[in-house]
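Narrative progress, year one. The postdoctoral researcher (J.K.) led the effort to move from monomer predictions toward full complexes, under supervision of the PI. The following entry was the first complex the group processed end to end, covering 437 residues in total.
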Amino acid sequence: MSKELNLWLDDLLKDIKIIQFKRKNSRRVRIDIAPEALPALLELLQGRASYVHLSAITCVDWIEDDEFELVYHVWSYETNSLVSAHTRISRDPGVYLSVYDLYTPAAFFERDIHEMFGLYFEGSPDMEKFILTEWNGPPPMRKDFDSEAFVNQTFSWEEYHPQWLKDIEAEGGGITTRPEDVR
Amino acid sequence: MNELDKIPVRQELSVAEGNVKRSNPLANVFDELVRFCQSRSMFMLHYCTGCGAIELPPAMTSRFDMERLGIQPMVTPRQADILLITGYVSVKTLKRIILTYEQMPSPKYVIGICSCTVNGGMYWQSYATAKVLKEYLPVDIYIAGCMPRPEAVISGLRDLMGDIKSGRADNWKRYFQNYDHYLGNQQKLFGEDWQTPTDIIAEAEHYGLMTDQTLGEHTALLQKHQQPLEALEFSLGEKREKIQGENPREKNNE
Ligand code: SF4
């Protein structure tokens, strides 16, 4: 049954001109779609093909293309397959529509993405801070945030070969296998 | 019976002189006995911060059985002797760790399990985790490894027991003696208005551990920002209504 459903769905999706459709295996489908059309696609999948479970929304920062990529993973219990709908939006101003009205769990993912990437979702119920409640810096998952520089500026480091280790080594202890011995 | 009553169980220490002189010949015997007992009954508050916590269940339960050494898990900081920090510590968690540590009664010991507590471990370039735990708290023993096996954990705990028995494990005193240094590092990370409900300076006075390192510029900063503690408001119902009354979407559009 689920095989047949998948075939029908494939035919249907292949007919839509504005999307790129690619079946990766019997349980995974990749769709590339323009941002304007994505909510309509999700509505179609949810209403007509019972893709009722939004497993995740992921975000990728393509800083060289000046774009954010959003991936909506929806799962259907009827066809037992996962559709990943990819869309790209411009990094500046970084605003997109919420799909909260279609999938309530989206509120959670959108809030998270807003916090980590600074992407704003219009119509999402809550765009307040979520996990990083005590963080005042820029959204840390954006590629233009230099985590390493931030760390070097904020934290100090333990000495690599401190005096106490030298003392232990003088007594014949310490590191027995050095990295260069195993390589 | 009367004879026993005459033995002073507690010696008055003349701290003011700086040089503590002990006149009772039995004092050392008592000290040793007390230290032996301490090392044999340790209650451990395992604050499971990182992935290293996964090695504790086998270490505590029947396979490796820490309890045969007298080490038991304890549920509240006020009754615990050891604070076990099992892995990477995010900045947010570090605040809670410091709160917890300050609530523990002295003598108290801190064990940092995992490489992450030593130098950041594999999260060395993460913006969210604190790197060197001993900058913020005096650490008694580090057990390195990613993650250390239960044998390593137990051997580390045995080392700590040895240190307690011989009286070498007195790192907790350093927190009082060098409070300004630790507070300075904490303020650097959490902002200068950082404060905890525990009055460390008063405690340092109580334990007779005030040194010239206890107070300094950072504690002055603390006193400037310190707000008196107030009881938290307790109410049922009202708050909820307030939240429901607000329309979150309206707030976003502002
Ligand atoms: S040292 Fe390894 S096991 Fe331990 S907290 Fe860090 S990453 Fe996890």
